[in-house]
Amino acid sequence: MNDMKDLVERITQRIQQMEKFEKFPIIINVSNRHVHLTKEHFEILFGTNVELTKLRDLMQPGQFAANETVTIVGPKGKFENVRIIGPLRKYTQIEISRTDSFVLGVKPPIRDSGNLTGSPGLIIIGPKGKIELNEGCIIALRHIHFTPQDAEKLGIKDKDYVRILAGKGKGRETIFSDVICRVSKEYATECHLDIDEANAANVDNGEYIYIVEKL
Amino acid sequence: MNDMKDLVERITQRIQQMEKFEKFPIIINVSNRHVHLTKEHFEILFGTNVELTKLRDLMQPGQFAANETVTIVGPKGKFENVRIIGPLRKYTQIEISRTDSFVLGVKPPIRDSGNLTGSPGLIIIGPKGKIELNEGCIIALRHIHFTPQDAEKLGIKDKDYVRILAGKGKGRETIFSDVICRVSKEYATECHLDIDEANAANVDNGEYIYIVEKL
Question: Which residue of B has its CA nearest to A201?
């Protein structure tokens, strides 16, 4: 009898959590392949007397898509016109999709931003020079950026993992596990998927996901 | 009290079903873009005195990847060397990924094989001629082929929908909903995903999924 009461209690709590999540849609940003550069690398590629210039603001405060693009080259293929995301960072990082990885001929790990140890390198070519990286190419771990306020509302802490539901009712409904939550007052609340993930779930930029389970 | 007993009963049944599914891994076949042709269309593209020839057998009995390939052309782009899947069929159908659809510049619906009404056309070019289709281009609805024996074991009927788990423990675990089950004595038991779906879940040809829920 106590076992049953306990079970009903736990199910009730879980349902309440699901209802809370369902009422909190989170906007999707679909990331195409892109590059983050250090100041040193930017100067090798573009010269010392130029600045990275803004094409458009991204949703994350201070982040922007730059007008400047580079070519990235792997053992098997290359991509031209790969956009730089500004501002310049303390590390150079190339984020590609798994589809891209087969074109380039590299096997990048699935990683959180900045975690580059043991990742493959690529050649980056700019208008003024090129760099040969020993590491820095990753497939981005799918993730949600949260403001502290939104995270608090949902009971989410930095580095929690969740499952999210994408593409409901569009013929390819998908539940993505292994979604890492990053919470910071520097962030806006936004879910980042890459193009493979967006296409698998039949969703685009500006649509919404919601969390279905905290892992 | 009766409510609680009923709940425990239903949860127990659900757990038993999940355990049955978990013990039945189903092999994944990752489909790249490909074309099915009618005899009439094949003859326009390759001539009247030639036969479609086998490169390799596929897992589905009688189905094969042909040596022959075509070029498919859309309003924005094209793909060369697109493989024909044999044998020839009663309808011409082009199956592409959502990633491919952006390259070609078409918006195909997500459909089960053979359901082509209202789908966009493409131009198909072969060594001896070309055809301009009014319809026939789809993004394949993800699906599992079942032998009647395997379907029976799992309590699955033709046209049931299920959720499947792919890529467990590989950094991109994904639960795909909207997976249609097709049961026939003509089939081998096999799950077909396209390249976007496989890359989103970090899985390859020959790995396994299992069903987590019957919808």
Answer: B197
